[in-house]
Automatic annotation (TrEMBL):
Pfam families: adh_short_C2. Keywords: Fatty acid biosynthesis, Fatty acid metabolism, Lipid biosynthesis, Lipid metabolism, NADP, Oxidoreductase. Belongs to the short-chain dehydrogenases/reductases (SDR) family. Its EC number is 1.1.1.100. This is 3-oxoacyl-[acyl-carrier-protein] reductase. Residues 3-176 form the Ketoreductase domain. Catalyzes the NADPH-dependent reduction of beta-ketoacyl-ACP substrates to beta-hydroxyacyl-ACP products, the first reductive step in the elongation cycle of fatty acid biosynthesis. One of its GO terms (molecular function) is 3-oxoacyl-[acyl-carrier-protein] reductase (NADPH) activity. It comes from Thermasporomyces composti. GO terms for biological process: fatty acid elongation. SUPFAM superfamilies: NAD(P)-binding Rossmann-fold domains. Homotetramer. The active site is at 140 (proton acceptor). NADP(+) binds at residues 9-12, 75, 140-144.
Length: 234
């Protein structure tokens, strides 16, 4: 049976691949985007997760057009990479506000409908960096690590209502961002990955889709790495 799925930041990269993966199995998929032209084929709602009123408006539109959200993928995120001593208050607060507080806002709003349905899947898109750490990414790593505590707390709060909360932590992904890295830097990163290659947005998306499937119904509060072995032991 088709479910109502919402993917935040679903207009490019991992988010778009996730939206496509759910659409492939016949789910009704909505995406949020902040600017530009959204991809065709999905219910696209403009939303900035740093603004509570736009989050509320986005959910209202999704609920009206495809029903209460049964699967939420909290994927919207930004980076403001720089070394700690150069990191401004704004660099810190913007990343935390978008990545962590934004994820809290959409999870809280989605949970309202899920509680009424007595079922639901909340999936946070974190990063291997959230557990492994990364020089120059103190703000980003903190925001992604925070998702783990949030997901596990939600898993404990809402588990009795048939709602699961999990974290998927991708490693280095082939995207426009990684393509911009120097050849030397790419070689350094690849040398740290046991599988010797980056993952693709599609590989990450398939894992997220599986976490939301009936096959994964007994998994909650988990951190699932899709990182080629980069973060082993974390």
């Amino acid at each position: 049976m088709a479910r109502s799925v919402l993917v935040t930041g679903g207009n490019r990269g991992i988010g778009l691949a996730v939206a496509q993966a759910f659409a492939e199995v016949g789910d009704n998929v909505a995406i949020t985007y902040r600017g530009g032209e959204p991809p065709a084929g999905f219910l696209a709602v403009k939303c900035d997760v740093t603004e509570p009123e736009t989050v509320e408006a986005a959910f209202a539109e999704v609920e009206e057009k495809q029903g209460p959200v049964e699967v939420l993928v909290a994927n919207a995120g930004i980076t403001r990479d720089t070394l700690l001593l150069r990191m401004s208050e704004e660099d810190w607060s913007q990343v935390i506000e978008t990545n962590l507080t934004g994820a809290y806002r959409v999870a809280k709003r989605a949970a309202k409908g899920m509680l009424r349905l007595r079922r639901g899947r909340i999936i946070f898109v974190s990063s291997v960096v959230g557990l492994l750490g990364s020089a120059g990414q103190v703000n980003y790593a903190a925001s992604k690590a925070g998702m783990v505590g949030m997901a596990r707390s939600i898993a404990r709060e809402l588990g009795s209502r048939g709602i699961t909360a999990n974290v998927v932590a991708p490693g280095f992904v082939e995207t426009a961002l990684t393509a911009q890295l120097s050849e030397e830097l790419q070689k350094q990163y690849l040398a740290q990955i046991p599988l010797g290659r980056y993952t693709t947005p599609e590989e990450v998306a398939r894992v997220i889709r599986w976490v939301a499937s009936d096959e994964a119904a007994y998994i909650t509060g988990a951190v699932i790495p899709v990182d080629g072995g980069l973060g082993m032991g974390h």
